[in-house]
What does this fold into?
Amino acid sequence: MTGSTPTFGQVERTLSQRILALYRAQTGHRLERVTSQIVDHKIVIVLENSVTQPEQLLLGNGKEELAEEIHENLNAVIQPQIRELIEEVVGVSVIDLLSDAKLDTERTGFIALLAEAPRLGDRSGANKNHESRKVS
It folds into this structure.
């Protein structure tokens, strides 16, 4: 390995940190945790505490449908930025980006399908056993 090729763990951490910063900058909302996992030509990303204060207010007052609609619209606005961020960090084109949210558990998930598996260094610094990587 040449030292200039980042490891899986380094890329997963960078991706998690950049998504955390993106959400903070775009929504003013602080995510509790972002977990990123590269598996072959896919990246799985889980955002915890992804429900904003206005969405929580709506949920707490029986306006679940409106809270879901707002969350979906926020997600639709942020999703192209997530795609661009993934491509920049990983260096591989995203051919599809799937997402869903569970407002009751305050989690949002993304699955990025990549054009090819990223060419990264050793997985020894990464989460070999698919443990969650906490970035706060």
